[in-house]
Specification:
8-stranded antiparallel β-sheet; 251 residues; alpha+beta
Length: 251
């Protein structure tokens, strides 16, 4: 009876090999859990990064659309020199890689703020790779304030006479709207007089606003898994001619 009890006590213990096997299995299980968590976190980070990039593209397109749709038909009193006033022009600069306009919408105050002068400029990207689209926002204080950006009138090689604008200055206050682009350019639709069809031009000098603005963009490195900047064609609904006097009285 005593011998039987001694054998039962010895068989109830855990051997070293069994302990090592248990520790090894626990290690494998822990490694599998950690590896699974790491893969899940990497996948979540990639999804978040892709989602934020897509939201940024959508936000940029919405901002550009609202800024152009808020365009104002205002005038500027050109100032070739400080204090020397020149001709009055319609305030709008349209070039291939530059654009100036007055708008009721701004990044600072949305669509309920004061009128702003928006300056768009395409500049080289970081380390010279691709280009980026930046914008400056400045207060619109009236024709004389806007006239500081107009240096006078000149005649282009085709004989058309139009305003000459000061270069757009890029600084710490400039906001980057779109980055890592292969190209970015502006064009403007000239409705012309019927029956002539409308045409797109890359240099706008007419004393009226174009009836549409096109912003062409393409990513530097396309990614099929993400939204990419696309070409935007934004109609201009303003029909008022700012250089013509308007009389609200009924004759």
């Amino acid at each position: 009876m005593k011998a039987r009890r001694e054998r039962a006590a010895r068989s109830a213990g855990v051997t070293l090999i069994e302990l090592l096997i248990a520790v090894l299995l626990f290690s494998f299980l822990s490694f599998g859990i950690v590896f699974t968590l790491r893969v899940a976190l990497n996948g979540m980070n990639k999804s978040d990064s892709k989602l934020m990039a897509n939201r940024r593209v959508i936000s940029i397109e919405r901002i550009l659309d609202q800024e152009v749709e808020g365009i104002m038909p205002v005038t500027a009193q050109c100032q070739p020199q400080p204090g020397a006033f020149g001709p009055k022009i319609m305030f709008f600069q349209g070039e291939r890689q530059s654009m100036r306009l007055a708008s009721t919408y701004s990044l600072q105050q949305g669509e309920r703020g004061l009128p702003m002068i928006l300056e768009y400029q395409v500049i080289p990207g970081e380390d010279g790779e691709g280009v980026r689209l930046v914008v400056n926002e400045r207060w619109y204080t009236g024709p004389r304030g806007a006239g500081l950006y107009c240096l006078g009138l000149s005649t282009d090689p085709e004989g058309a006479r139009g305003p000459v604008f000061a270069p757009i200055a890029i600084g710490p206050g400039s906001f980057v709207l779109a980055d890592k682009l292969a190209y970015c350019r502006f064009s403007f639709r000239d409705p012309r007089m019927p029956p002539a069809p409308p045409i797109w031009v890359q240099h706008w000098i007419k004393p009226v606003l174009p009836n549409a603005i096109r912003i062409e963009m393409a990513p530097l490195a396309p990614d099929l898994g993400r939204l990419v900047p696309i070409t935007l064609t934004i109609p201009v609904h303003v029909t008022r001619l700012p250089l013509e006097p308007y009389d609200n009285t009924n004759n």
